[in-house]
Each structure stands twice: as C-alpha cells, then as structure tokens.
Write a structure and sequence with these properties.
alpha+beta; Immunoglobulin-like; four-stranded mixed sheet
Length: 153
Amino acid sequence: MNNILFRALGTCCLTFLLAVGNSASAAENVSRVTVELTGLATETGVVFIAVFDSPDTWLGDEALTHQEVDITESLEGEVVRSELQLPPGEYALLIFYDSNGNGELDTNFIGIPKEPIAMSNNAKMKFGPPKYEDAVFTLGSEAIVQRISVKEL
C-alpha cells in the first residue's frame, strides 16, 4: 500500500461519510465495529486499518475505506481501541503498524511485510497471506468487537 492508495482511500472515506451524514435513513443502517488491538502498548505512532468488502479487492489497492489510529491517543491499558461505522454486511480488516512513520506498509523484495500486521479474526499467514474467507466477519445491526493481536512477522 502506498501514499496514493491512502489518499484515494481517504477520499472514498470522506465521500462515504458525507453520503451517510446526508441521509437520515442511511444513518439508521450503520453499525459499529470496535477494533481492539493488542501488542502495541509499548509503541507510539500510527496504526492503519483498511476495510475490505470483497474477496476480489482483499489486500489490494481498492479498500472500501481506511482509518489512521494514533496509538498514544487510543491506548486504554494494554489495548488500542478504534471504532468503524459501517453499514451491515461482510467485511475483512487489514491492520498494520507504521513503525517508521512513512505512511506505507513496507515489504521486502518478495512482498513480505517488514512491519507488524494483523487481520480480522486474527487470520494467520500460512505460506502467503490469509484468504478473505479466513478474515471475513459479518456486521449486522448490532455493534461487534474485533479483538486483534498485532505481531511482527
């Protein structure tokens, strides 16, 4: 992921939030995902959360939206908390800790992340990235919590 992706995602997010904010009925169809990240209590800086809603876009440049989370401002005990407002549906999350502050997920020459990452449902990497089906969760009208452990590979 690169700066262009996050600028595009930010534009998409803003468009989405404006559309939701302008429609009373749309506001009724939005639910909350509380993301609780562990493994970052001794860190400072930013965590990026990218939201995907399709196996076709999973881990690509076309995330539905993303969120930047300041670790220091969001830390409660040993947990970094953030909330996402999304309409009911199926989603998968990619989280990475931007350890060097460059706004990108740094990878080695074969594409393996060099910075701590995690996926919703704590989907594990096994000889490659997890499948969308391993990370997907269903958001209904009730709020849910995704407790995710961020780890160095």
